[in-house]
TrEMBL record:
Belongs to the bacterial solute-binding protein 2 family. Keywords: Membrane, Signal, Transmembrane, Transmembrane helix. This is ABC transporter, sugar binding protein. The chain crosses the membrane at residues 7-27. InterPro entries: Peripla_BP_I, SBP_2_dom. GO terms for molecular function: carbohydrate binding. Its main location: other. Residues 42-294 form the Periplasmic binding protein domain. It is found in: Cell envelope. The keyword Transferase does not apply.
Length: 321
């Protein structure tokens, strides 16, 4: 046998042995469980660290239980999300954890009803569906209160305001935040909404939207953004357009980026912190309880925390809460 062929044979045998050893160690260290719980998770977009952190918390607990998690990203496309739920049904998942792209989508609600009929437990996170009938539990932050807190701070720190609202009308959580804000300033004529833009919760959408408002000549001195990503997009637009007049910016999330801006600059007025770690933990715990036919509240609301430069240093600036 030629030397080259001999070496190739030795390498092939070595690789085969390593593969067999890997398989042996896997089943030795990770006991086989034919009753592993299968979970399907789909969020409106993974282009948001909030959902990545939330999903990582779920994944950590699923791994500890030696179960299976399928994570999908519909990228803000409700048709894709509907297809993902169909795929979860075909895979025979036991639990679906979903953050809906569109709360009012009839096709999404229909496929979730189909999943429910097959015995799959449905956990909705960080938002709601307009039709709650297929949902076993919904886990959200107190989004309405987040808007209230922003409005109260505005009224305490400014005697009047020209407000630009940055929204996401297909997400109930975002709508609740804006509604809380508007309900609080209602009846106070010195606080006026001068424009509204839908930004889908995305920085890259918010920036050109705010630039278009500036270019149109609409005068505003306050931005109420549905989340921190949009607030940061608004800040980028204001800086890019070289707006010199002071503008107060409010966000919701308590993201590391926003907390650092609060701690180091005067560009951001406040954010309302929610906890993807807590939502993720409660979501998978609720899913497991439902799978075991144990009682779970129909709605679980998690408190939020108002953050300004005065108290932000009490939190972890490098991570989520």
């Amino acid at each position: 046998m030629k030397k080259g062929k001999l070496i190739a044979l030795i390498v092939s045998v070595f690789i085969a042995l390593l593969t067999m050893l890997g398989i042996y160690l896997h089943y030795k260290l990770v006991p086989y469980n034919e009753n592993r719980v299968k979970i399907g998770a789909t969020y409106m977009t993974m282009n948001n660290d909030f959902y990545k952190v939330l999903n990582n918390e779920i994944d950590k607990i699923v791994e500890e239980n030696n179960d299976i998690l399928y994570t999908r990203d519909p990228a803000l496309d409700v048709n894709k999300q509907t297809q993902q739920v169909e795929l979860f049904i075909k895979k025979g998942v036991n639990i679906i954890i979903i953050n809906p792209v569109d709360a009012n989508s009839k096709k999404l609600i229909k496929v979730l009803k189909k999943a429910k009929k097959t015995g799959i437990k449905i956990v909705v996170v960080d938002s709601q569906l307009s039709d709650n009938s297929p949902v076993d539990t919904t886990i959200v932050s107190d989004n309405y209160q987040a808007g209230v807190l922003c409005a109260k701070n505005l009224m305490q720190t400014q005697s009047s305001a020209k407000i630009l609202l940055l929204e996401h009308q297909k997400a109930v959580s975002a709508v609740d935040r804006i509604n809380g804000f508007l309900a609080t300033i209602k009846g106070h004529d010195s606080y006026q909404v001068v424009d509204r833009k839908d930004c889908l919760g995305q920085t890259e959408v918010a920036m050109p939207q705010v630039e278009s408002v500036i270019n149109s000549g609409v005068d505003f001195d306050t931005v109420m953004a549905l989340n921190d990503q949009v607030a940061i997009g608004a800040l980028a637009a204001i800086e890019n357009m070289k707006v010199t007049a002071p503008v107060k910016i409010y966000g919701v999330d308590g993201s590391p980026d926003m907390k650092n801006l609060l701690a180091t600059t005067s560009s951001i007025q406040a954010t309302v912190a929610q906890s993807p770690l807590t939502i993720g933990e409660k979501a998978i715990q609720a899913g497991y309880r439902l799978y075991q036919d144990k009682k779970v509240d129909k709605e679980i609301v998690i408190p939020v925390e108002f953050m300004t430069s005065d108290n932000v240093l009490n939190s972890d600036l490098t991570g989520w809460q």
